[in-house]
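does this look right to u?? magnesium ion version
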Amino acid sequence: MEKKIAILPGDGIGREVVEAAAQVLKQIEASFDHSFTFEYADIGGGAVDDYDDPLPAHTLDICKRSDAILLGAVGGPAWDHLPGEKRPEKGLLRIRKELGLFANLRPVRSFKSLLHSSPLREEVIDGVDVMIVRELTGGLYFGEPRERRTIDGEEAAVDTLVYKKSEIRRIVQQAFEIARLRTQKVISVDKANVLESSRLWRETAEETAKDYPDVELEHMLVDNAAMQIMYDPKKLDVIVTENMFGDILSDEASMLTGSLGMLPSASMGSEKPALYEPVHGSAPDIAGQGTANPLATIASSAMMLKYSFGLQRESDVVEEAIEQVLSEGLLPADLSRDKTSAASTEEVTKAVCTH
Ligand code: NAI
Ligand code: MG
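got this back:
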């Protein structure tokens, strides 16, 4: 199979973990006789430095011409002083919007060999398998106006939470489709007791559910959901929610796996290409040390093989290799009790490739 993959390393550990995932993709290419072409492009702080733009036009062109996109992470203290439009994170928001990537899939599974590295009790997390479906191009992160103004004579700030019905319907549909491949249960998370946008969300989820009589729909308030993730995560399967709730709940859920460094994600729209990236950020605190956990990004590339290329077997092989590496006890620092003997990014990557 011939595929073009755009590689957007970004900043900080983004560069390190994307290189690791690219090596794994090259291994799959060689082992299964595919032909993958990799085209590198700039995004984030590095792109601001070189092109004065966190998402340069040439990057967007390369992405649009590719079959799938692999992204690392953007941002860091060097760019924190910049105004909104120039911030690295804006590059990320813009690429999602430009490519219409409204659905962000964040699978959270517990690994047997990592049960010890979660702050939660083993019996709570053993067997957890949740899919968070986060709306990615609407809500508070995109709504206008967003501005400073004077209210009652003092400085104030305004953000806007807007959802159109069509935006809610398409993400809820996506969640129902995914639920059909799993345990036929969807939990829609909102704050319908307070927010009007959540009331529309809930009504629309109910309407959409009529097209999926085989799938059970439950509603849950976001504060309760935050509690249930810690209290009884095995009860959860597919969770669908709006942009900011999904952002926060998925970072929380990462603790079920042991580390943010284990969480992959896929962002897709109604057209190609989809974008694959770890849930974590650029981790400036450990960047450049060669110690970052590459498994979230490697698992993201496994999602790419499955969802964008339909290569189920190849995707399974990558996931099995991750499991094997972990069960052999080759753990990067974020998962390791003994930080001094932890495996480096490169050691973990090589082991995954070998398996
Ligand atoms: P972060 O996810 O970068 O780091 C949070 C903590 O987790 C840090 O202690 C970090 O060392 C650790 N960590 C994260 N990924 C890891 C990995 N693969 N291996 C080992 N440890 C890992 O979030 P933070 O610190 O809030 O943000 C840092 C920068 O990243 C900021 O500029 C932020 O805006 C940006 N960011 C970018 C995202 C993206 O590109 N998608 C997402 C989140 C944050
Ligand atoms: Mg986040």
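The mean pLDDT is 96. idk if thats expected tbh
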